[in-house]
Design a protein that fits this description.
The protein is mainly alpha-helical. 67% of the residues lie in helices and 0% in strands. Helix 1 runs parallel beside helix 3. The longest helix is centred in the last third of the chain and has 22 residues.
Length: 129
């Protein structure tokens, strides 16, 4: 009930963060399709109210969504989402921007590892002296 969206008096920020929390709950239950749907709905609410909406809310949703993508090893999507979240941060939120930037770099490194072909192994054979 605490994650209900039935209250029409919710602000866009409250609605977006509730959807974000529902997305996290579905992710923990490994219901990834429903998790993604809730995060995407939260992001679309933010887009609907783009004019005067707090950019920190949008950045927070993107960062949390990116964390969920990262744990599923969807490194490219996580990287892009972390970068977007960091770009929305303000000077006052420099710790948040730095954190998102670090997570983006970690995603990039994991992506590079995943795309790198394994090093060829040399045939090692015993030689008689």
């Amino acid at each position: 009930k605490s994650l209900s969206l039935k209250n029409d008096n919710l602000s866009p920020h409250q609605r977006a963060m509730t959807l974000c929390n529902i997305g996290i709950a579905h992710h923990k239950m490994r219901n990834y399709e429903e998790s993604d749907r809730n995060f995407n709905e939260a992001l679309s609410i933010q887009a609907d109210f783009n004019g005067g909406l707090n950019q920190a809310t949008l950045a927070a949703v993107k960062c949390k969504f990116a964390c969920m993508l990262y744990t599923r090893k969807l490194y490219l999507r996580a990287y892009n989402m972390f970068r977007e979240a960091a770009s929305l941060g303000s000077v006052e939120a420099s710790d948040f921007v730095d954190q998102c930037g670090s997570y983006a770099e970690s995603s990039r490194r994991n992506l590079m590892k995943a795309e790198r072909p394994p090093a060829p192994t040399k045939n090692i054979s015993a030689h008689k002296p």
